[in-house]
Amino acid sequence: MTTQHLTQIIVIVVLVLMSGYFSATETAFSSLNKTRLKTLIEKGNRRAALTLALSEKYDNLLSTILIGNNIVNIAMSSISTLLFLDLLGDMGASVSTAVITVVVLIFGEISPKSIAKECPEKFAMFSAPIINFILIVLTPFNFLFAQWKKLLAKLFSLDNDTKMSQEELLMLVEEVQQDGSIDKTEGELLKNAIEFGDLEAKDILTHRLDLAAVAVTDSKEEIAKVFLESKFSRILVYDDSIDNIIGVLHHKDFYTESGVTDADIRDIMTPPIFVIKEVKIDLVLRELQKKKSHLAVVLDEYGGTYGVITMEDILDELVGELWTEPEENNENFKKLSDDLYRILASIDLDEFCEYFEIEIESDMVSFSGWITDRLEKIPTTGDQFEYEGMVIRVLSTDSHRVSEVEVRLTEDFRKEKEDEKENAVL
Q: Are 214 and 256 in contact (CB under 8 A)?
């Protein structure tokens, strides 16, 4: 082996290392966490600042890496071919192709990329000054490639929209949660925040049949009785009918230190805020904040009272239930025996599903609405039906709405739940 051959081998080794460097740099910059870099920048790390700046112009960075990597690989292939032709004659080209392919795969691609993937920020900061110098040297080529990219985008009408859809965001949260980066509570909070803007007032309001309201002409004793029975801190005040809401009466204004106020109801009630039932709840929240109010009256398409939406209703959708009663103290569910329950139908359908650990696909929000939908008629006392091993019977109704039901669990339902628990243990 001559000195020339030894020189060629040394050059090939250097080119392999450079190929590995370019491959590792590409992986490091595509995998790094910008938040970690920003934290280092706040601590005064200049190399982190350079790394972040390079990552912000990733297209130019990628062009530089690809140009450098291709130059290195082509040079390596050419020199190795000359070397093997001198050493092995005519079969040298084939041997050179096989050897260089294996060497590049192992030492120029797989190994360096695996290393960079494990510590992307560290390697990117190590590489930043070098790749920044190469980027400056190759600026004319990067400019030409940038113009070529724009031309291709115009020719093929490429869509440059990189915004994530709501479904993609929800899937991302799910993946991060499964990965263990966030816990279940944090995941639910993020999902609620993502879906928050899609909800409308009609999705979370309290229906007019469940409202606590008094007539402006009612006596103080009648109003006090409504406050006592409803346990609400605010009640609506109407004139003539519930469809003509004229104010909101607060508990703290109705009661003084000496008892019920002597002031006229019209003087102490506050003007109501009106919204339509199709309005987004984020807009309702802004309106409530702007008017410094906690309650808005929701109107239907005819201008009548459809229900009310409160600040707490909106916050519950964003951050989850602010407080939930323990199951044994939950007045909505009364366990009569191991397989018999008495339930208030005014609860949400989700609350019913959560209590019995089942899933129900329905457009209905309330449990009573779902029962009416299943019966396909105006419910009456004694109506019943079976659903997934549960026999649901109407015990009482109020204004054509179900107010209380009896739920009996069949043997099939209990057996299915026992099997689910056994499978969960296994």
A: no
